[in-house]
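A note from the maintainers: we've had questions about how concatenated examples are separated. There is no special marker in the raw files; a new sequence line simply starts the next protein. For clarity in this README we add a label.
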Amino acid sequence: MKKTGPVPARLAALLAVLGLMFIGGDLTHRPPLALWAMEPFALPYRLPEILVANDGRRVTDASTWWSVRRPEILELFRSQVYGRMPIRPVTFEVFDEDREALGGTAVRKQVRVNFTDDPSGPGMDLLIYLPARAPQPVPVFLILNFRGNHAIHSDPAIRITPSWMKDSVGVIDNRSTEAARGSRSYRFPVEKILARGYGLATIYYGDLDPDYDDGFKNGVHGAFDSGTRTPESWGSIAAWAWGLSRGLDYLETDPEVDGKRVMAAGHSRLGKTALWAAAEDERFAGAFASGSGCMGAAIGRRMLGENIADINRRFGHWFCDNFHQYNFREHDLPVDQHQLLALIAPRPVYLASAELDLWSDPIGEFQAARAAAPVFELLGAAAPGQAFPFKYPPNLHEPQMGALGFHIRGGEHDILDYDWDCFMDFADRIVKPSRP
């Protein structure tokens, strides 16, 4: 089977640039040329049935979905892809609260979430910003970050994480320093989110799993795995998703947060995480994923951009051991990512993509949303044919919104202000925040 990836991606990008030279008019809302240039490399595929049970029965009502088909699909993702999360109680300690943060526009809270009874043991810091003087409990986006809570904003009161960190701006000997403060603020428009009536809560993903393969001896795996691991033991994505659920555990106790309107969000590998967290934990009000790609929202059987062999070679620790048998065997995997989106139904799902993020296969993400739509309709999230009533991917910067949402913006793999604007426009239709 011919492998796709970097060579076709570079060719597509070149074709896109050449194409732009001959296009007139408004380039902001043009077709995503780079993505269409990739389409000849997509493999033909047949998706696993989403509304046919393992015994061959067609699923035609919500009761059968909840009692039969959904548990079947969830079990396959647990056993063959992400692994099984443990059930572990946690404790909370609020160590910082400032009701006049960010010039009086925000309430800032920092919470230590302890994974064991020992406060000096493993745990994570949860950073929360809420709109100041909000008239009622607010909806919240809960998102993991890559560089530490202190990197999402220049606020000098945010505690610098002591956890291990990959080399980057302001990191010395795998520990972050003051120089990293605010270094990723462009990905987290805190003030804009607050002005729209939402709260933002975030956790450094390295507090849960530092994202390098040492045989699962570090992070929560080291704390909770009792010796022998099985082929279905949880990988890093499941560990990060477990952390999002533990963050939700706290948010449900905070009287200033509407615990029924907490939405999981994430970018890249943490977009995959947000989708899996919302699939596993039905308390989340919805899922918002940016550039989630392979084993996130993109159809794997297309084998366009990153494929299973690529992701296992570089990041095999993200998944359970069973998943490794599917290298170059996408068609043998008993699930595909439209079923992951369906597990979140009828709660809203929004997918953000970028034109030059060819490795994430944005059109494959669009196809997954289309294929998942019948489950959202079965469960009453939309009328028949209306959950995601779009036949073709959109032009750039023209979001498509039904029970599921999708957009392609210009640019590369990232999460930017435009993505957040679309997230909030979509969320406004569902959770209806009250603006301060």
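[label: protein 2]
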Amino acid sequence: MKPIPFKIDRNNRVNIPEQLANGFRMAIRSGYYKQGEKLPSFAEIVEALDISIRAPRDAMKILIDENLVRSRPRIGCEVMARGEKVWKGRVLGVVCAAFEGSYYISILVGAIRKAIIAAGYSFIPVTIDRKKNGRPDFSQLDAMMKEPVDFVIAVHPDDHIAKRIVRHGVPALAHVDVQKAAGLDVVRLFSIRDIIEIARKVRPSGIRKVLLAEYAEMPFVADVFMKHGIDVERLKVKPKEGFGYLEDIKRKAFFSLRERLSDRKDLPDLILFTDDFVAFGGLMALVDLQIRVPQDVKVLTMANKGFAPVFPVSLAQVVIDPIANGVAIAEAALAKMENRRRRPPLPRLVFLPGDSLPTTHNSFTT
């Protein structure tokens, strides 16, 4: 067996199947594995890299979808010849490695990929990691751009990533919450109208002061609430970047909120958690301090559908659906590629009341 020309980095935020797919993809495109050449068997990959048997299976599914590899019964996976199967086009899905472990991003990108492939386009994930000096590593993106690419979907790109994509001159759009995505067409996580509706709904509940617990800065949320006569204090959670940063968000949220509320003086009327992981840590701090919900403070959390924190009191939630959002983002990209009229960017946010925020409304869509 020809030696596998890459290693698995177990400290990398990118999961093992994606690392395998990335490694074999680069090896195929560099010519290390030739057209028609048989790739190592699953058993050989498992033995060489000390991984589970499921990882190479999942990796090969990705490469098969990308039209790089085909599976032949009793033979294995081999590199396909160029032009052996024709897709309508090639779409890159660009994600910063810092978001790889995010529930929302993982589900969202999976939904985008499924919709793009169903429409007849290949979908190739590209991960932007950081070098030791802290700068983005664009080697994988630049290598992909040497091949024909019809469109790029960038998920939460910072300005460095957005500018790099613009430099390549390929049609693209970016899915963002607060980022500007310099030069790229933007599909936002939610609109200002969504936030206005949330502010209008909480004010009748006697809310006059809100503590906004966030790790991705959302100044426009504070601005909208203040314009509706609600005072806002922003509590910034600052996780350490790198492996395990999602767990660090929980830890930092716990300690930050516990420090802010430890003397139990000047409690806000409402704590608004803008992220699931911030909510997980912040709610633990409320329990630790024996602050009662909703008697002492009310709580509202932005939550991914199917991934809301569990709490003794039912939580009022602003629900974000990553699957529906992924389908909508894919549709926006397809409409742009095929010169069709673009549909509304994303489904509206859904507010689900709970005992943590008593309200006269049973439920509503913003």
